[in-house]
Amino acid sequence: MVANKGFQEIDYRTANTAKIAIGVLGYGFMGKVHSNAYLKIPYTYKTPAAFPELVAMGGRTEEKVEDTARRFGYLGYYTDWRSLIENPRIQVFDNCAGENMHYEPSVAAVEQGKHLICEKPLAMSADEAKKMLDAAERSGVKHMCMFNYRFIPAVRLARDLLERRALGTIYQFRARYLQQQGHSPDEVVENIWYAKKTRTGVLGGIGCHVIDLARFLVGEISAVSGIVKTFHSKRKTKVGDEQDIDADEGNVALIEFENGAIGTLESSGVSTGRKNHNTWEINGSKGSLLFDLEDLNHLQVYLEEGPLKETWGFSNVSVTEPFHPFQTLILPRGHNAGWEYGHVHGLHHFINCVVNDLPVAPYGATFEDGYKAQVVVEAIKLSSKMGKRVGIKSISNAS
Question: pTM here?
Answer without folding.
Answer: 0.94
